[in-house]
Amino acid sequence: MADTSMVDYDRFMSGYTWEEYLDRTERNRDQFVAAYEALEFTGAEQAWIRSLDRKTYVLGIGEDWCPDVFTNLPVVPKIASLNPEHIIVRIFPRDEGVDGRSVPYQEVGKMPDPGRFKNHDLMSLYLHGEGRSMSIPAFGFFDENWNEFGRFVGGRPRLYWHWLDTMGKERAIQERMGEFMRHNRGREVFWEVRQILESR
Known about the structure:
Glutaredoxin; 4 strands
């Protein structure tokens, strides 16, 4: 894993809470809310989330124009909503400038530019794949001492990347991902996040 020493309590707390992130959202707010509300947990899953008794800080990176973000990012705040004392989430807009606004997607390069975007230093920790892409959402999971013990990168669950790699993008989207996402409602991301939390 990359050196995450830049992440400490003060830097983490400078991010947005879920509610604050929704308030700054200019696009796709309804999709964020719909994804959040669509994810349901069984009674056993709720009990497990509430049983977590050590603080975990989850750093998220996203942007409101991205379908993977408004589909997958809400999963983590929804988990945290059942145990807010021990699961603390802060969200950092990937392309936020010093004025607090994110620039349009078309104006952002392919690689992190920390001199222009104040959260690109964080994004540089969570690049995905051999191409080192700035895929979002990305999450880093930290303990009370700011040791990172897990991460979710690539913007999509591993299963989706498996389909993309083995079937090709067009076929994977048409034959697998579209239908699966309509019925899955965040469950695949939840299972990956659960594995990370259980690995601690």
